[in-house]
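#help-structures
NK: newbie question, is this the right format to request a structure? protein is Bacterial membrane protein YfhO
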Amino acid sequence: MMKGHKREYLIIGLITFLMPVVILCVIFAYSEIVPFGNNSLIVNDFNNQYLSYFIYLKHNFFSIHNLFYSYSLSLGGNFFGITTYYLLSPFNLLFIIFPVNEFPIVITIMTIIKISCLAVTMYLYLGYLLVKYRRNMQLSLQKYDIRMTGLLAVSFSLMSFVINYKSNIMWLDSIILLPLIMLGLEQILDSKRPYLYIVTLSFSIILNYYIGFILCLFTGLFFIYRLSLFEFKKDNLKKLSEKIFNFVVASSISGALSAFILLPSFESVRLNGAVPYSFSDQLRFSPLDILPMVFSNVTVDTAKGGLPSISCGLLVVILLGLYFLKSKITIRERMTSFIFLILLVFSQSVLGTYLIWHGLTAPNGFPDRNAFIFSFIFVYLAFRAWCYHETWSSRTLSQLLVAYILGMLVLFKTYSNLITFHALVFDLVLGGLIIGSLYLLQNRSYRSIFLCLMIACTFDITLNAYHWQKMTHRSLAVSQFNRYYSSTQGIINKLKSKDTTFYRLGTTFMRADTDPLMFGYVGLSNYNSADNTNNVQFLNKVGYFQKYSYWRWMNYNNGATLGMDSLLGIKYLVTSNNKCFNQNFDQGMSDMGARNEINATSVWQQNKLGDNTQYQVYKNPLALGLVSLVSSKVTNANIVGNDNVFQIQNSIFDALNHKNNRIYQSNQVIRKGKNNYQIVIHHPGDAYAYLPAENWAIIGSTSTQAILSVDGKTISYGNQAENGIVRLGNFKKGQKVNLRIRPQDNKNQKQFNLIYQKQPIVQSENKNRLTRVLTQMKNTAPVTSISGTKISFKVDGSKQKAALLTIPYDASWHAVSNGQNVKLKKSFNNLLTVPLKSGRQKITLSFSPLGLKKGLVISFGGCLGLIIFGIYDEKKRHYFKEG
């Protein structure tokens, strides 16, 4: 039936692709998004995380081992889960081609292309349905049917979910495949070949396993819904059983084909400390509260929680109304569709089923990540209604207009917090125009009327998309970021060219916790919600930062103590207090960025290497390498049951040589009023303070951040840049020091007091003892080679020794010593340790993500299964064709 309209179909397909391009360009130009201004689409976690991942991908695209394991991921970590969640999109090849300073423009272009591709895939799906339904109804295909198909496809592509969550750019690829998956499912229901379904479902999982999981659930439910519309007669049962068989087999093959991604990805996030799933019948929101979200221009920040983003334009709302009003669509189908929608709404509002949609884990930000399935169902049912447009009567459309106006007024009265008066007026006027155009389409002047309908719908879609775009949080300032990135990358590269050994680097500024990945250095900071909790807990326990409830990211935080920095190999410190740098940094940093230059460099001053106009670099001569020989007793040390960071550090240094080193010793702390203390120095040397904080729920406000001063001199801001151990200064024995902790805003003193209820812990560092312990360990296990997945080093060990590596223990590491396998152990509940035998040994460690080999075997089995199933299916079709 489409043959006679092939040219029209291709032209509308092209227009379907171009409409989102034009609409988004208008919106972005008005919002001054690059290239139309200095703003960008890099917001929220795109700024905090994804940008660094994409830059890391660019720098390591041809070093695949660095995409399996990265030493820039905090102390080091399994990078496979990040690669498979964020970096497998074929669109990411654009990042490889273009320089980093063009990334903001690339991201704008990539976003526009992805959204336009979504419109095209939906157009292909609806086009297939159009031919099928019109043929079943024995009606000829009209040009305006194809045009309506394109208009609904554009409405779907610019749904509020996509505009609101477009910063999660890695989700869009799998969502683009949703209509093609459904097209493949429709072909299975039509007893056609299942290959499109298998390929698209497999790739939806491979490109982003998280959204792929949601698509698998939805596909299963949608298949059941579509099956329930078939007539269950005796002569149909065999055909139904064949459809079910083909669906189950095709789905199983898709899962098997993607196992090489699924299994190791699951293993990489399994230890992220997520709360175990338990079903709860608690309601997240009343099911009726979802009604206003269907309309355009509602006012709610869904990214912070609340209600799902499901709007996809007033045309879809109006056609939905026509679907459920009087029409030729059977009551059975309408009732089944209504029940299906109700079940979906309840699955979204009930906490237990909501968590199932999200992989049995509560989303860490960006709730209702499956909301796009509602928009898909709405468009599908709206399209079903359009297919029966010849049967619409003037009376039906008049009833719809009245129902629409009354419904909008009731919703405005009930949900005035969501629907503003301006939104009400816009929706009433545009809705009235759309219904009026549909009414006039019952006459025969199609071209002009459909043009009016298209203009009204386009204006509505554009206005709704702009409305959601306006609620976007502060974006990255492009020019400032580019200046900051180029200058900082320059100093990092210069340092790396001078020192090619393995070392870690700290900074007193932090654009984001993912800076080590962005700039390609080995540090301590990281922001990844799937990170191993043992690693987070370790850095928290030794005083780099304070971990509160949902806190899953790690900061260098200007360091802990000199001793801990040295043990973990912090060899260089980069700092800057240049005015130009500060301006670029403040406007180019992420929401989680911070800088705290005041006091951090004091302990490093005597080892200043030099500086340029913006940066100063300091060297730590005590810093150890990646591997050191230590006492075998380190594997017995446990730091979990202690909350005193200095006692924990003492226990670590004592375990290293199995001696009582007493490197950190207590000083007397006397309270002198609210948050004022006198410190009596009992032990000379560098004194450090640790301020245990409580009530993390109110710490996020800048007005409750602390200012620390010693004898009237400000030494630190107790914020995200330094909320762990803080160096107070170098003092003599018997010296008395006044420590004051105050809020940045005195109006918030009450809240501030709730945070800092506990007395600070102040201890001094014995540098002579520290130097002795570290000197004994230095260069005892030189590394001969290192890559992302392999480490080799030589030792002259004994049964009383062990090789301690300052990277986290991971069961994916395997060790071989002189050709024999060695069972790896864990020290201090986190660090990787190799037990040693006597004599000279060459030890090689190799990393292979858990589940990868098993996944590859299953995927190979999936390929064989696909071939066998294909042969069986083709023979069966040939048999029936011959018969």
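mod (FA): yep, format's fine, and the tokens are attached above. The CA atoms of residues 652 and 761 lie 18 Å apart.
NK: thank you!
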